[in-house]
Structure formats: C-alpha cells, structure tokens
C-alpha cells in the first residue's frame, strides 16, 4: 500500500500535497545529516533508532464503556489493534498500557505485554509516558497507537516513525488522510492544516480551513487527522509537566498543547480508509467492511 500519496480530486492539489511530504522528509533528512543528530544517537549510530509502540487502553468511556474489549468478528478490538501493530517493521517492542484489570487479563490471554498505569492519566499521551517510565528501558521514539483503530495499516506506523527520524527539529509526528465531504462537520472527525514543509499548523473539530460560503469546497483537499502519533521520548517526559493551554481546552485536543507551547509536529499524508470505533454502532460498520474484503 503506497502511503506517501495524495487522493485529492484536483491534480494540482494532489501534486502540491505530494510535494510537501517529499520535501519535508528530504529537508529533515538533510538537516539530520548536517547536525549529526548527536543528541539522539544511540549505540547503533542511527538517529532515534530505538522505537516502542504503546497502545493505551481504558475501560471507562462516556460514549462506549469497555470499548477495548468489544468483539469484532470474534476477537476483542484491542487484540486486533495489537496484531496490526506487531506487523510494523520499525517497532522494536509493542505493549498495552491500561488502568483496568479486565483489559489487562484479556491482553495477557492473547500474549501481549501489559503495563498497568494509573486512572489519573488525562489522555493517551500521559498514559504512554507513565508506561514508558515503568518499563525502565531506553527508547528514542514512542508511538501512541490508538486502540480504537483495529484496521490501522502497519505502513502508517512505519511512516510516522520515519518522518520523526528525518525531522530533528520536530518532537512529534502524526498522519492525516483525505477528509470525506460527509465528515466535514462531524466534531468526532478531527481536521488538520499543515504548512508547505509538512509541519502542523492547527487541529480542529470544526472544518478548517473555513471559507466565506460556509460550505464544503469540493475542490479543496481537506485533511482528516488519524489518531496515531509518535513522540521523541525526551519530549514525552516533558509533556505532562506542561500546563493545559486555552486552545487545547477549548477543542479538547491534546495536539494543540504541543503547538501552543512552540514545539514542531511533522505530518505525513497517507491513503487510508479510516475505520475508527467511537460508538457501539461503529462495530457493525467495521465488521461489514471486513467481511466485504475477506479480512479475518
């Protein structure tokens, strides 16, 4: 599956999207070479080389209680996410971080390593940080893999890891894909805008950019944020100490705290048909999709 591609209906927009991805990766790689990446070099001599994938999972949810344990064609959703993550070539290790004994028992049953974390974690990023500290092993990059994307492509995990490795001025990387017109005003579908070097400018639950007509422009390549993200491990230790920021609180989006504090975030655009699970009704949609494509 080619992930560094654009799906815009406008050929010029498509070319532009491809341009900023390729330019951003090339520029980041060149900068890493120029700086020597000394602050992050491991014993292997590779830039940010040690990578762990962490799947944060909590039982309590206002929209879908016990979501990680919901079955999708006979398997718990958390198991399907873990199995997909294990296929990523860039991950040296994959663990589940949870505050719930039922989720822990389920994960241990199918062979996953589990790190117990506190109920006080306010979001997945803080849960990843606590899990990393409890692991007691040194990693350069931590990938936060959302447990409610049971069909996440391993190539996307690899893509955001490589993007962060190629951008020494960034502490965070994430992925976006084309936004479907019907999702334009859905607050559960987070939108993103980026600059011409592939760095995030803003995330919003509303439609961005927003034009004068107040309607969706079918010619504009709107971007949908995918929940997966990776962090430089040094920054991950800093993140919980940062005070909540106005934009973060207003939009209820943790990415905005990163941007409001002046940190850089690298973004890649991928071809991916999202199948996130936000409500119980979404389980049926995912199962239909899997059956139609003979995915087990």
From TrEMBL:
Against CDD domains, the record matches this protein to: CMP-KDO-Synthetase
- What does the record give as its pathway? Nucleotide-sugar biosynthesis; CMP-3-deoxy-D-manno-octulosonate biosynthesis; CMP-3-deoxy-D-manno-octulosonate from 3-deoxy-D-manno-octulosonate and CTP: step 1/1
Q: Which InterPro entries match?
A: Cytidylyl_trans, KdsB, Nucleotide-diphossugar_trans
Q: Where are the transmembrane segments?
A: 20-41
| Cellular component GO terms, alphabetical | membrane; mitochondrion
- Tell me which EC number(s) this protein carries: 2.7.7.38
- Provide the GO MF annotations for this entry: 3-deoxy-manno-octulosonate cytidylyltransferase activity
List GO BP terms, alphabetically: CMP-keto-3-deoxy-D-manno-octulosonic acid biosynthetic process
Q: Which Pfam families match?
A: CTP_transf_3 (PF02348)
Cell compartment(s), UniProt: Membrane
- Where is this protein chiefly located? membrane
Which domain of life does this protein belong to? Eukaryota
Keyword terms of this UniProt record: Membrane, Nucleotidyltransferase, Transferase, Transmembrane, Transmembrane helix
Catalysed reaction(s) here are: 3-deoxy-alpha-D-manno-oct-2-ulosonate + CTP = CMP-3-deoxy-beta-D-manno-octulosonate + diphosphate
Tell me its family: Belongs to the KdsB family.
Which protein are we looking at?
3-deoxy-manno-octulosonate cytidylyltransferase
Native source species = Nicotiana tabacum (Common tobacco)
Phylogenetic lineage = Eukaryota, Viridiplantae, Streptophyta, Embryophyta, Tracheophyta
The gene coding this protein: LOC107813341
């Amino acid at each position: 599956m080619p992930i560094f591609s654009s799906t815009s209906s406008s050929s010029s927009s498509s070319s532009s999207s491809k341009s900023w991805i390729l330019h951003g990766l090339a520029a980041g790689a060149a900068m890493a070479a120029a700086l020597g990446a000394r602050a992050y070099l491991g014993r292997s001599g590779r830039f940010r080389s040690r990578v762990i994938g962490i799947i944060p999972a909590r039982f309590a949810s206002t929209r879908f209680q016990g979501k990680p344990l919901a079955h999708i064609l006979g398997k718990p959703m958390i198991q399907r996410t873990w199995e997909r993550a294990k296929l990523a070539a860039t991950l040296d290790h994959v663990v589940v971080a949870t505050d719930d004994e039922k989720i822990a028992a389920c994960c241990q049953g199918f062979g996953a390593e589990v790190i117990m974390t506190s109920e006080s974690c306010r979001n997945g990023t803080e849960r990843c940080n606590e899990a990393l500290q409890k692991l007691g092993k040194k990693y350069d990059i931590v990938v936060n893999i959302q447990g409610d994307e049971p069909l996440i492509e391993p190539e996307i995990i690899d893509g955001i890891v490589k993007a962060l490795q190629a951008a020494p001025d960034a502490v965070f990387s994430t992925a976006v894909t084309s936004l479907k017109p019907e999702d334009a005003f859905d607050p559960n579908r987070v939108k993103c805008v980026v600059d011409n070097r592939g760095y995030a400018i803003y995330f919003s639950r509303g439609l961005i950019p927003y034009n004068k007509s107040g309607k969706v422009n079918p010619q504009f390549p709107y971007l949908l944020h995918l929940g997966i993200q990776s962090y430089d491990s040094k920054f991950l230790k800093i993140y919980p100490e940062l005070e909540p920021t106005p934009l973060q609180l207003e939009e209820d989006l943790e990415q905005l705290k990163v941007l409001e504090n002046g940190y850089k975030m690298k973004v890649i655009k991928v071809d991916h048909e999202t199948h996130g699970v936000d409500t119980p009704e979404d389980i049926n949609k995912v199962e239909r999709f899997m059956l139609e494509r003979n995915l087990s």
